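Fold Annotation — chain and its backbone

Encoding — discrete vocabulary of local shapes
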Amino acid sequence: MLGLTPFKNLPRPMQAILLINAIVYLLSWVRLGYDVFSYGAFIPSQALGSLELWRFLSYAFIHLDFWHLLFNMLMFWMFATEVCKSLGERNFTTLYMISAIFAGIFSIPFYTFGIIGDNPVIGASGALFGVMAAYAFLFPEQIILMFFLVPMKIKHAIWIFIAIDLFMANSGDGIAHFAHLGGVLAGYLFMLFWSKSISMESLFAKPKKPETYSREFFKQQAKQMPPLEGELYKGNSNAKEERLNEILEKINVSGLQSLNQEERDYLQWFGKQNKK
């Protein structure tokens, strides 16, 4: 359905995020909903002077409405799979957490200057928008179905999402649009630093000296090998040298592990002949 990877095949961070969101939602159905909300929601006015720092992250795992949970987790499942495979589990987890935390922090100045109210913020949307920004960074030409209807490249769709949030930011519709924008910004900055770190590593990494192998190397190896069993190699000395040169060239190009058993046997035999 929708081309989603089966849950059992998802990377471990994705499985954990999906399960935590589902469990927290189920807790709201066993008379713990108020406690989950009151102790986990992110409230801008309290964030300024409160020591309850867990709220900067806990809010991203709270959904009190089934359709809110379903939509966020479905979008997460669709976009996060390839992002996680590309970044690796550790980097993906860092991306998700940073996006969630920064999405909450990003909304504080707008509350301070009276642009938005003091409504509690809950839901994974901020972190989800960070993942979507990472997806657009990695796969800008990928076609998605905008609103499940209109085919569009993700590099264009992400700007439409941003424009919608900017337009609706002060509409009072109960959606934390500035948290969405904070998530997008966090995701983009993370990917920018991630890509720069890769390019810097490759730029300043000390080049590895290619390994080469000489006849003396194989003479030394032959001293440590048991007697060769099987057919001896026949032919004149020139043919034997040519065969040896072919194998040495293959090693220098592709490495010692590229040799087949016949080539390994020949090197062993040649080394023993030179030792004699």
Notes: The chain has two domains: 7-204, 215-275.
